[in-house]
Specification:
The chain is an all-beta fold and 118 residues long. 0% of the residues lie in helices and 52% in strands. The protein has no helices and eleven strands. Strands 2, 4, 5, 6, 9, 10 and 11 form a seven-stranded mixed β-sheet that branches. Strands 1-3-8-7 form a four-stranded antiparallel β-sheet, with no helix packed on it. Strand 7 and strand 8 form a beta hairpin. The chain is globular, with a radius of gyration of 13 Å. The termini are far apart.
């Protein structure tokens, strides 16, 4: 599966952005999807994940209550709605996919830059 992330940009603190990740292939609905981010000088970190059906989601503590991950299997797309953005959310955001039953995200998008100014 090939992934293409988009939707990043420059916003002020408190504003919102919605990231999209479009996937190729007819088996998208069998993949668990996730968003990760990497800030300058830091390691890549997990942000959120969603099950193949969309019925299960999980977030890292720092984004709980502010970010929402969803997916539309008919459109082969996963979204990350980011509200109440903070300067510390500034990073390159990556979407990733893993096959159902696997613990490894083998497929990665190219990343989209999110910059939050104070």
């Amino acid at each position: 599966v090939q992934l293409q992330a988009s939707g990043g940009g420059l916003v002020q603190a408190g504003e919102s952005l919605r990231l999209s990740c479009a996937a190729s292939g007819r088996t998208f609905s069998t993949y668990g999807m996730a968003w990760f981010r990497q800030a300058p000088g830091k390691e890549r970190e997990f942000v959120a994940r969603i099950s193949w059906s969309g019925g299960s989601t999980y977030y890292t503590d720092s984004v709980k209550g502010r970010f929402t991950i969803t997916r539309d299997n008919a459109k082969n797309t996963v979204y990350l709605q980011m509200d109440s953005l903070k300067p510390e959310d500034t990073a390159v955001y990556f979407c990733a996919a893993r096959q159902t039953g696997s613990t490894t995200y083998r497929y990665w998008g190219q990343g989209t830059q999110v910059t939050v100014s104070s």
